[in-house]
Write a structure and sequence with these properties.
The chain is of the alpha+beta class. It has helices spanning 18-23, 25-33, 59-78, 87-95, and strands at 14-17, 38-42, 45-50. The protein has two domains: 1-53, 3-Layer(aba) Sandwich (YefM-like fold); 59-95. A three-stranded mixed beta sheet has the order 1-2-3. Residues 1-9 have low confidence and may be disordered.
């Protein structure tokens, strides 16, 4: 799947011909959910775009707010936690 220049200010992660997009839509949608922007092309010209839907998040400010909440939760989880010993041993124990 070749990349192509974007018509807007954001360059798509990849460009996909329309016929291929129709045949592989179920594989393209999860990529969009993960943040990929996919240009759908007809004869090499972008005609549509598959983009992530961030739902109730509103642009960059909404994502920043979510990151701030996540960092606060991590700080709360980290408070009072103390790792002692060999980090490799701790990591291996966590895998078991």
């Amino acid at each position: 799947m070749p990349n192509s220049p974007a018509a807007s200010r954001h360059q798509p992660t990849l460009a996909v011909p329309l016929a291929e997009a129709k045949n592989h839509l179920s594989a393209l949608v999860p990529r969009g959910e993960q943040g990929a922007e996919i240009a759908i092309t007809r004869r090499g010209v972008p005609v549509a775009r598959l983009v992530p839907d961030f739902g109730d998040r509103q642009g960059r400010d909404g994502r920043r707010a979510q990151v701030a909440v996540a960092l606060e939760r991590l700080q709360q989880l980290r408070a009072g936690s103390l790792l002692e010993g060999n980090l490799r041993v701790i990591a291996r124990e966590g895998l078991d």
